[in-house]
Amino acid sequence: MNKALAAGGAVAVAACIALGIGSQSTAQANSDPSSPTAGIIQNVKTGAADLQADALNQLIDASGAKGKVQAALNANVSQIAHRTGLPESTVRTGVAALDIEDWKAMALPQNAQASCTYPVSYDGIDASVTLYRDPSYLSLSTMGQQVTLQVPESAQPYVDYLGYLA
Questions:
Q1: Buried b (16+ CB within 10 A) or exposed e, 121-132
Q2: How far apart are CA 122 and CA 14, in angstroms?
Q3: Percent of the chain with pLDDT over 90
């Protein structure tokens, strides 16, 4: 599962780097929230982040990365079960419920509160997975870039199992 998740993360991160998703907008809102430009700049930032997420989703879908991640997870059910100590049937149910095909890149909500971060490594690339108090999204980070993914409702009960990868 570590290699499968990291492989998916590496593809998403590579796409993230290619699109410049990790870079922050250079526009800075006036520190006075009552400033007329503060709201406009925030709307532009939000719109730009949404466009970047849409472009990243198209790139990820076109790459076939989601299918590769799902196939790797399916192929490694017994190793995941052995490593976690969970029964294979539980792992198989969890892998199916992850519903990788429905994961989407999104902008990290401003009110996001991280709950934990786990290190992962794949093919010489170190990355981290950050989980939030709201289980409907998580972030993958590597090489100074970050991509936030919307987690489908069916997968949310299984997100905490990512801790087994550390």
A1: ebeeeebbbbbb
A2: 13
A3: 22
